[in-house]
Amino acid sequence: MSSSRHLHATPALLEAARSTLRERVAPALESGEARYAAAMVANALSIAARELELGPTVRKRERELLAGFYGAPGAALEE
What is the mean pLDDT of the chain? Predict the structure, then answer.
């Protein structure tokens, strides 16, 4: 499997981990503090998955908007 195929599978893997954590692991935790920690980890997994899926597109658009704002439309801004 090529590295680009791994990257496409990563958001799905993160979602599977998040679902398992929220649906199977967290309910089995007795402590409210532990359940809260599990929810925080699940949310972090969701953020990471969204960043992997949307990040390149969002960063590209952000650079375009900044270039326009600074009066240099079409300028190549470094990442």
Answer: 83
- For residue 27, give Cα distances in angstroms to 2, 52, 57, 76, 79: 37, 28, 36, 49, 41
**Which residues have CB under 8 Å from 39's CB, separation 6+?**
22, 26
The verdict on pTM exceeding 0.70 is no
Using CA atoms, how far apart are residues 26 and 42, in angstroms rounded to an integer? 10
Please give the structure tokens belonging to residue 38: 């599990």
Token match 């929810």: residue? 39
Residue with tokens 């969701």: 46
Q: CA distances (Å), 60 to each of 57, 65, 70, in order?
A: 5, 9, 15
Tokens 């960043």 identify what position? 51
